[in-house]
Amino acid sequence: MTSAELDQRIAAAEAWAVADIDPASRHATRSLIARAREGQHSAITEIIDAFSGRLTFGTAGLRGKVGPGPRRMNRVVISQTSAGFAQFLIEREQRSGSLQLDPPSVVIGYDGRTGSAVFARDAAEVMAGAGVRVFLLPEAGPTPLTAFAVRHLQVSAGVMITASHNPPADNGYKVFLGGPDEGAQIIPPTDDAIAQHIDRASQVAPTTIARAHDYVTLGEGVANAYVAETASAVLRGLPADPKRPGRALGDETDLKVVYTAMHGVGSEIARRVFRSAALPSVIVVAEQDRPDPKFPSLEFPNPEEPGSLDLAFRIAGDLDADLVVANDPDADRVAIAVKAPARQPARAPRGYRQRPRVASQQFRRLTGNELGLLLGWRAAEREHARAKIAGTEPRGTLASTNVSSPALRAVAEAYNLDYTETLSGFKWVSRVPRLIFGFEEAIGYLTHPGHVRDKDGISAAADAIAMVRELKAEGRTVWDLLDDASELFGHFASSQVTLRLPSMDVATELSARVRTTPPTQFGDTRITRARDLMNPGEATVPANVLRYDLADGSRVMVRPSGTEPKLKVYLDTFAGDGTAAERRGQAEATLAQLEAAVRGYFDGLQLSA
């Protein structure tokens, strides 16, 4: 960047500081300017990044680092976004003809991250100032609660201030729509329409955006209703004990569960759901049980990340627990771990930082695909039980994203249910007609679509706890159940190669390089079909996803992350001959060879850049 261009960025930062509505942010901007003028490289880099363009509003809403500037999450960006979203809602009501009867309405929730409570109040004031009826949830809470509230309160929209499982420095602005969208996340072209309104709102001085304080701060009613409805749905789906009429299978079985909220907002409401569903009390990881935006015991607040469950594993090992349950910080995702199966040594996945304590190595986290298979199978069984009692045919749809394991398709076929494969993201999964269960491999599950139209790590956790309790009552384990699945559906093995990159732009560029230098084979196995979902007709909506079907039945999917600077490569293999152990061995051997070949391809691609 030339000195003249840097001067332009510094001038933009100075203008920002003058217009900023937040005194602390204003001070931070002026400090940044002073350090940049002194030649500090870090300050120059920050000014260039924070004041070059704006955060892009898309189907995931907004996500970015907290800090001053239009490419950061701050009170100005939140206010402008809320003003634009309010105008979108008003126009939407005008087109429907209902504005004369009632103004649009919105419920706003927030998590425990840096700035979340303040951002939520800014959103409430701005949207109320625009004439929208606003309901603010009373305290920091999980994303599924806000998604539930949209349907429960029958409002026009929902806003959740959260960055979910992103790094600690981030925050975000997530949008749901009510009415015909039934509380689902936004999809194209709605995201573009909202973005246009936000762009117009960003052209006016932040201090001139109208605000009002006549919004409603809700009480405990929404949370109480969420707990009651979630627990009721879980209880209705519990399989009956054939030896004890009227009792649920395993309801008297002692199960020792360790639970971590990962410094997030899930613990209190999750434990309320577990109690109301007559599930075992959990032993919390005390150091991670309360919201803390610094996430002091974690490098990355995501249950999928290597080492993120070390503390929970050590506690579970010390207590000889049966199960570890982890919600991510906004509790829309869940991971579970159980003692590693006797059929193989307790080994850590690639990249896992080994710990000296043997106890921590006795537990293995199920992959998102493994738990998705088991919960989807459970949902199919639940629907068959319902249909038998009602004297009807089973009906409904199982759904997963196109980068998730294809195992759920086999479950649907075996149970005579419909199956749908969607683009990545629960904005698509939740909109599948007649949905009874949906999942994505990134530990996101929708187990009870009747009252939440987004992934819900709390209801999924409750179902997982019940499932493990039932297995223990029968003297069995999750690994036994996965073997049963391999016998019934064939063995599906999955893995993911994640390339961490300096920025989202670099991830997109690397994906584009795959298009210009496409592989023709991985290892010794040739590619029989290549699909680019950006091409018209390949997907419902063009998506930056590349799919390669291999001659041996394996599959490779490539896409940049929508929320983090990563390129993700999804690998799937299948074996359907022999015993469960033989199928597993064959599929996992093929997977190991495929992973090595894929890593070699991308290593070469990056070196040639």
Low-confidence stretches: 345-360
Number of domains: 4
CATH class designation of the largest domain: Alpha Beta
Helix content: 25-40%
Concise summary:
The protein has 17 helices and 22 strands. The protein is α/β, with parallel strands linked by helices.
Describe the structure.
GO terms for molecular function: magnesium ion binding; phosphomannomutase activity; phosphopentomutase activity. One of its GO terms (biological process) is purine ribonucleoside salvage. Residues 55-203, 252-337, 391-484 form the Alpha-D-phosphohexomutase alpha/beta/alpha domain. This is Phosphomannomutase. Belongs to the phosphohexose mutase family. This protein has 609 residues and is of the alpha/beta class. The chain has 4 domains: 1-52, no CATH class; 56-218, Alpha-D-Glucose-1,6-Bisphosphate, Chain A, domain 3, CATH 3.40.120; 220-241 and 254-348 and 357-489, Alpha-D-Glucose-1,6-Bisphosphate, Chain A, domain 3; 491-607, 2-Layer Sandwich (TATA-Binding Protein). Helices cover 40% and strands 18% of the residues. The chain has 17 helices and 22 strands. It has helices at residues 3-19, 23-37, 41-50, 75-96, 116-129, 143-152, 190-201, 221-236, 267-276, 310-319, 368-390, 407-414, 426-429, 457-473, 478-489, 504-516, 580-607; strands at 62-65, 105-110, 133-136, 157-161, 170-177, 184-185, 216-217, 257-260, 282-284, 323-327, 334-339, 363-365, 397-401, 418-422, 435-440, 444-446, 491-500, 521-522, 525-532, 546-550, 555-560, 566-575. Strands 1, 2, 3, 4, 5, 6 and 7 form a 7-stranded mixed β-sheet that branches. Strands 17-22-21-20-19-18 form a 6-stranded antiparallel β-sheet. It has a 5-stranded mixed β-sheet with strand order 9-8-10-11-12, sandwiched between helices. A hairpin with a 6-residue loop joins strand 5 (170-177) and strand 6. Helix 4 (75-96) crosses helix 5 (116-129) and helix 8 crosses helix 9. The longest helix has 28 residues, at 580-607. The chain starts with a helix and ends with a helix. The model is unreliable at 345-360 (pLDDT under 50).
